[in-house]
């Protein structure tokens, strides 16, 4: 068992090193997210304070629009550089490749999303959340689940020559409940409005699904 965990840790280190070397992608994502918030602030003409539901909706829309190009770029880079083909030679279950990628890409996605959230607090003149711990938990959970979906679906879309068009068509219907849950949970954390339990259950269901489904389907997807 220790050998398997050592191999998984090696996969995580390799993926983290790869993402760190391709820093232009996630740095560009951070810049795009900050620009998104700035444009939203200009469009709202310096509104003193938005309703919590509006602000949280804008926040998650900015996060999603920032992360989608990164997922596409990561998957396209893996396919073009042959990184995935090399990992297929590793003596371990292919689903571990997904879990390693999910861990690393979720970490970088959290950094990008945190930059978007911090900028939105400043530019959109939003007050601190009423429940900061709940806000952080909901925000990180939503980003982690979205990262898992993005990583998995981007792999499925990579086999298509028109992956830039196929990937959003796959992502939007599947990720819509996650986005709704993330928005409602952050609204509750920001303004104590709504019932968070059902939305936590949605995120938990998707998290369990992402833990199980790649174990069954990721290897066939890689071999396409």
TrEMBL record:
Pfam families referenced in this protein's UniProt entry, alphabetically: CcmB
Gene Ontology cellular component annotations, sorted alphabetically: membrane
InterPro entries in the record: Cyt_c_biogenesis_CcmB
Keyword ATP-binding among UniProt keywords: no
Claim: Transmembrane is one of the keywords in the record: yes
TM region(s), chain numbering: 26-45, 52-72, 99-124, 136-159, 165-186, 198-218
Membrane topology: Multi-pass membrane protein
Cellular localisation: Membrane
Gene Ontology MF term list: heme transmembrane transporter activity
Record key words, sorted: Membrane, Transmembrane, Transmembrane helix
GO biological process, one term: cytochrome complex assembly
Family: Belongs to the CcmB/CycW/HelB family.
Record's protein name: Cytochrome C biogenesis protein B
Originating species: Alicyclobacillus cellulosilyticus
């Amino acid at each position: 068992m220790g050998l398997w965990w050592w191999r998984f840790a090696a996969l995580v280190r390799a993926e983290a090193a790869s993402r760190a070397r391709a820093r232009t992608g996630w740095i560009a994502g951070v810049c795009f997210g900050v620009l998104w918030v700035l444009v939203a602030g200009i469009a709202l003409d310096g509104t003193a304070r938005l309703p919590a539901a509006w602000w949280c909706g804008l926040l998650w829309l900015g996060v999603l629009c920032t992360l989608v190009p990164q997922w596409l770029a990561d998957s396209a880079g893996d396919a073009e550089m042959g990184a995935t083909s090399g990992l297929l030679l590793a003596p371990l279950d292919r689903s571990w490749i997904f879990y390693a990628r999910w861990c690393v890409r979720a970490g970088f996605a959290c950094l990008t999303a945190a930059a978007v959230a911090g900028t939105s607090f400043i530019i959109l003149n939003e007050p601190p959340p009423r429940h900061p711990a709940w806000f952080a938990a909901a925000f990180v959970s939503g980003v982690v689940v979205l990262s898992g979906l993005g990583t998995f679906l981007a792999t499925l879309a990579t086999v298509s020559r028109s992956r830039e068009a196929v990937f959003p068509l796959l992502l939007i219907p599947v990720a819509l409940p996650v986005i709704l849950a993330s928005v409602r949970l952050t609204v509750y954390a920001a303004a104590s409005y709504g019932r968070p339990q059902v939305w936590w259950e949605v995120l938990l269901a998707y998290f369990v699904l992402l833990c199980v489904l790649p174990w069954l389907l990721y290897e066939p997807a890689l071999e396409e």
